[in-house]
Write a structure and sequence with these properties.
alpha+beta, six-stranded antiparallel sheet, two-stranded antiparallel ribbon, 2 helices, globular
Length: 144
């Protein structure tokens, strides 16, 4: 059975394995993680990196997501909900599966790259909304 989802709260406390660290006062830790915007709920911890600039691309927001229990996530609805709650429902995001030469796979941590501008769309993907909790053609689908 899936855990009930609690609202995200912004935090400034990180646990280093032995104690909690306040990144507002510990500059070394803030530099190490590269942001002071961290959101947690009962399941996930999300680092938010705003104003990511890449040549010839619109401004991006990078969400670095992990479960608090360090287990794998890969639940599409969880990632969509995290994006919606922390950035907005009308922002598009992608999850990149890189070339092996650029692969980074060191933890059960997931990354979404979100277009900063609300309403801006990637030039690929669906052109309409179609959502259902009914399984079609022997597919499986969870209830909402």
């Amino acid at each position: 059975m899936e855990k009930e989802w609690t609202a995200f709260e912004r935090t400034y406390l990180l646990h280093d394995g032995t104690k909690y660290i306040d990144i507002r006062t510990d500059v070394r830790w803030r530099k190490l993680i590269g942001t002071d915007e961290i959101h947690v709920n009962n399941i996930h911890q999300v680092y938010v990196y705003r104003s990511i600039l890449v040549s010839n691309w619109p401004e991006l927001i990078w969400l670095s997501i992990k479960r608090k229990d360090k287990e794998p996530i890969h639940d599409w609805r969880h990632l969509q909900r995290i994006k919606n709650e922390l950035i907005g429902t009308e922002h598009e995001a992608i999850e990149l599966y890189p070339a092996e030469s650029r692969l980074v796979d060191t933890a059960n941590q997931y990354h979404l790259w979100v277009l900063s501008e609300k309403g801006l769309r990637f030039p690929f993907g669906w052109d309409r909304r179609e959502v259902s909790d009914i399984a079609y053609n022997n597919a499986k689908q969870r209830k909402f």
